[in-house]
Write a structure and sequence with these properties.
The structure is a single chain. The chain has 146 residues and is mainly alpha-helical. It contains 5 helices and 2 strands. It starts with 5 loop residues before the first strand and ends with a helix.
Length: 146
């Protein structure tokens, strides 16, 4: 049985083989195992010769911050150029498009969007194509059942 401060140790020989186990006494640490008080740490730091150089905290602009600012500036410039280019293209389109024909006024009920949107779709080319496809499918099913 080992008591307080006692240990059994072994070390490696010069060839790397373990040596026989030896009983030994361990000395307790003479320093404190607690955290160093803040006042003592400050006093030790102030006595250091580098304190005069590193005492004042300086927050310089980092390389990452400089690169981020440069990238943001280039992104803003690209957005501004794209906006100007879009405005120029829109102005060209407006100049090249003929003016819309004047709207006709007819009496009675008008055609187009005033009606039911489903009816408008079914009257369109795509709607008629869909109706024909569905009708062909239904009639082919009826023919197969006979």
């Amino acid at each position: 049985q080992l008591g307080t401060g006692e240990a059994m140790i072994t070390i490696l020989s010069e060839r790397g083989a373990p040596t026989p186990v030896v009983w030994t006494m361990l000395r307790p640490p003479t320093s404190s195992m607690a955290a160093v008080p803040v006042d003592d740490m400050d006093a030790a730091a102030r006595q250091d010769p580098l304190w005069t150089r590193y005492a004042q905290e300086i927050d310089r602009e980092s390389a990452r911050e400089k690169l981020a600012a440069r990238m943001a500036a280039s992104a803003e410039a690209e957005e501004a150029a794209a906006a100007v280019e879009e405005e120029v293209a829109a102005a060209r389109r407006r100049r090249s498009e003929p003016p819309p024909p004047p709207a006709r006024r007819t009496g009675g009920r008008g055609r187009g969007t005033d009606e039911n949107p489903v009816v408008d779709y079914l009257k369109s080319r795509e709607g008629r194509s869909m109706v024909n496809t569905v009708a062909r499918g239904v009639f082919s099913l009826l023919r197969k059942r006979r």
